Amino acid sequence: MTQGFLPVSNPKEESGSKGKKEHFLATGFQKHFASVRDLRIERTKAHNLLDIIAIALLAVLSGADGWEEIEAYGEGKCEWLKNFLELPNGIPSHDTFSRVFAKIDPKEFQESFLGWVKTVTEKLGVEVVAKGAPPAIAIDGKTLKGSYDRESRKKALHLVSAWSSSHRLILGQQKVKNKSNEITAIPELLEMLSIEGAVLTLDAMGCQKEIASLIIQKKADYILCLKANHKGMYERVFDWFQLAKAENFVGRKSDYYQEVENGHHRVEKREVWVVPVEEIPGLDPKGEWKGLKTEVLNVEKSETKNAIIDRI
């Protein structure tokens, strides 16, 4: 089996290449991906599983899109890849890549990949979190368009994803049967991620006491969307803001921000009020919402020639 992930920029250069190999040995590619089970029949294994995974990862990181491009990447980099992979029968075909990855457990692969990426960033001293502001991570569920299989009557694939706004990439995903299962999938996704110091945003489905508690437990912060699925709390907050607005927030602690944009034959005005949770009487008397500090009202007004639309 391969001894680890050992890419070097120029395998022909002896000077300095040994140090680079030793450095990348420490990334523990084999250690992290050893937990991915190889479900192929033993007599059909012409290629090592770790070779297949390594080539696919390197190809995708280099911009490959699809199994044929992954195979082409492997063929083009074959001599270089031999420096750190076994490749007993050369580069696997695109059909082999497709069949092998179809058998791999997605959860096992995701956990291994996240662990490996974490080790790589730590060993190389990469600054994952941008300095100056906490990273924003959006947790959201989406049904993949076109994933419904009419012939086999398979339901469309629904995924809960963690999206890093600063890095513009998906940090992790969790498959669910439908949108109603997001409540159980979100904690599973959060358990896989290192989110310390981040600010997580979640829609109304993720506005749950248990999820808020887990985020605080993992030393992160949250912005949750409060809607009518928490009827009592929503009505209390909504009524309080309506009264406070009518009285121009006189005698109440609050922060206010607004911006106005003109364009496309319309005027858009956005207003945001932020108040300490203590200002709203009886909102969380038992302290069940861990880390809850403020309530925010966001009002958007869009004015055109024919209509005025308010969104709260």
Automatic annotation (TrEMBL):
Q: Which residues form the Transposase IS4-like domain?
A: 134-242
Q: Taxonomically, which superkingdom?
A: Bacteria
> Where is region (Disordered) located?
1-21
GO MF, one term, reads: DNA binding
One GO term of the biological process aspect: DNA transposition
| The H repeat-associated protein N-terminal domain, residue ranges | 31-117
Q: Known Pfam families for this protein? A: DDE_Tnp_1 (PF01609), DDE_Tnp_1_assoc (PF13808)
Q: Which InterPro entries match?
A: ISAs1_transpos, Transposase_11, Transposase_11-like, YbfD_N
Which stretches are tagged as biased composition: Basic and acidic residues?
11-21
Descriptive protein name: ISAs1 family transposase
Question: Species lineage, top-down?
Answer: Bacteria, Bacillati, Cyanobacteriota, Cyanophyceae, Oscillatoriophycideae
